[in-house]
Amino acid sequence: MTASAPSTALLTDHYELTMVEAALRSGAASRECVFEVFARRLPEGRRYGVVAGTGRLLDAIESFRFSDQEIDHLRRTTVVDDTTLEFLASYRFQGDIWGYAEGECYFPYSPVLVVESDFAHGVILETLVLSILNHDSAVASAASRMTSAAGDRPCIEMGSRRTHEEAAVAAARAAYIAGFATTSNLEAGRRYGVPTAGTAAHAFTLLHDDEREAFAAQVEALGKGTTLLVDTYDVASAVRTAVEIAGPQLGAVRLDSGDLLSQAREVRALLNDLGNQDTRIVVTSDLDEYAIAGLAAGPVDLYGVGTSLVTGSGAPTAGMVYKLVARTDDSGTMVSVAKKSKDKQSVGGRKYALRRLNAKGCAEAEVIGLGETPADDGDDRPLLVPLVRDGEVVGRESCTIEAARARHEASRAELPAAAHRLQRGEPAVPTLFEDNLP
Amino acid sequence: MTASAPSTALLTDHYELTMVEAALRSGAASRECVFEVFARRLPEGRRYGVVAGTGRLLDAIESFRFSDQEIDHLRRTTVVDDTTLEFLASYRFQGDIWGYAEGECYFPYSPVLVVESDFAHGVILETLVLSILNHDSAVASAASRMTSAAGDRPCIEMGSRRTHEEAAVAAARAAYIAGFATTSNLEAGRRYGVPTAGTAAHAFTLLHDDEREAFAAQVEALGKGTTLLVDTYDVASAVRTAVEIAGPQLGAVRLDSGDLLSQAREVRALLNDLGNQDTRIVVTSDLDEYAIAGLAAGPVDLYGVGTSLVTGSGAPTAGMVYKLVARTDDSGTMVSVAKKSKDKQSVGGRKYALRRLNAKGCAEAEVIGLGETPADDGDDRPLLVPLVRDGEVVGRESCTIEAARARHEASRAELPAAAHRLQRGEPAVPTLFEDNLP
After folding, report:
1. Across the interface, do B256 and A10 touch by the CB < 8 Å criterion?
2. What distances in angstroms separate CA B434 from CA A95, B131, B176, B234, B373, one per listed residue?
3. Which of A177, A382, A413, B297 has the highest CB neighbour number within 10 Å of its CB?
């Protein structure tokens, strides 16, 4: 992150700053604290979740600085008092952050991020941490089900137009981590190196006097390997025209409406009749993981997914929360804390987390215990990796987009077979709390 | 918008640029075109939608420029050829844009935005236009139902942590347009002037040795008018402590868990017993429009809404599309065009739109016709206002956040009573196509 990256400090709830003000006044601001990010449950019926956004979060934390512009705004709008403004002006996160490596699967109560610092330095990151992890994890969790349902067939992310323009860039990144092959989003290509792809819309066909002219124009510009959209008027007639123009080298045809399964079969038969065995069939049109699975038996080569991907396929936010689980008392002793609110209890204490694996390397449980990771953990895989130490980012390599993509593939492969069922059910492995937890 | 605003040009689907390349090659790029943004349907059961994002869109279009950085990226990744790069390097939208004024209600097939320019200049805006309008309109449409259900009681937007960090800022803006009183999001305060508010979380109580100490610290810092969160341990005991500390001037107490209706009644009775008739009750905890309506009979003074607001209460995207509806032919004559794809037909031609009002000023229909708005439109209210003319933004005043908020209130008030029912049903007024449409 360069020094000129825009400040992320005001992407924050008002009450984080008023809490800092009140804690500075009471003196409790300097108590050492442990904050934990976790989800009490997965979206209904889901078997696992996917942690995503960690790499973006590390950049965002480095840019979490209150420059003169931010301080002036807060002073003018009297959000907090002068003492607090002074604290904010010199704010720089100086604690430690641990977390599940990006791309890792998670389950209910998995401590996906652990922030250790004094109260004032830690509480203030709550909104930004949750915005990034909740959004990106929701998209990655949905995306993983789609790529799982698609098997060896590539999935193309094309949902930018169905979500906020910046959320679209993050969604393309999260989808790639969860196994999507490409995105339509050019900024995701520039910012994160996600491969981009795309061909033409109905507008391009309608722009020309007829379909033949449009196809010829596209093939001339983009080559015979391009994908021609064949459902603007009549599909069979469009396929014949496409083959006449591009010949056997025609890359692909795209179907974007109607009954995709029966149309794909008809188009496959027609293409084969015309000698275009190598021309692929791309399907798009409100696909989700269920529609993808429903097309598994059809002659489909690529899936384009938009709306369902960027909206988390029914679960647009991951429901993660950021909770104080431990803090020092006046004597400096660390004390576990937890609220008792009805239906929203939390579990106090700094936790460790392990993925328990059987002899075949298959995940059997998410094990959560209090304190340090046990030294002798056998086949269990420790899940918390260092991300920030004394305010310095140390975990960036673990959450590059390629590392996260590889990790997700490995983490998902480790789950029991039930994880890959689309129908609603319980989490693929149980979350076990060790005896030392309250 | 200052010259230094970041470029929005790559917040765009790859295929918009390859279509420009192919159309430049075929010569069709210079055909004059009309693109229309509309939704084929409202989210299931909704009675009306709310147009939002127009003001943001005008800024984004002004920043839609391909500087050296964008061109270099596109050249390096060979997205398009050199002729197209030259076109992009000098790109500046030079056409006209009309649209529903921000805050206006819309219905199926309402032409909420009309873009008139040559093909290349118009098609390229598709992704950005849809990202902004689909996201912001989805949030505003949900928000309007919430403020309608809340009646005179203020709604507080507090969903930043449940959505992408930049989407959160846009969501706060959209919610304010649809009648929310305040937001928790500080950046929405700075960027758009939305009033911000907030007090404390459970972490603040848990940080202190006991609830009394936490409440005292908060009241000392933020004054007796603050809102104390009373459900960390035992609600009744917390209310007593709060009143002991702040006295009759205590501003409000907040309930964030459990059965909010019965708890609000108990807390109201207790506050009154203690002499705190003026202390208000704020409720939060996964509220949506139905929960708000369910609390109407309870002694609740303010509603805080998070997740449901930023995720569009079940409809996180508005489903608007950007379609070519007319273009010139070789003779320069404007021709209506429409695709015939199964279940995705569109209606060709440049449209006008009117809200038909009866003698009492109540909306009776959304009237859509072909061509110019009829001169004698009686009580009908024309809906398309000029936003951009010859590339210059002319509609900014119509979509300031305050103008949009006032317009939404007026537009919603004009709808028939059925519009305000929360249960699923048909759109509040029918969409009528005039006879001149195909």
Report:
1. no
2. 66, 30, 35, 63, 12
3. A177
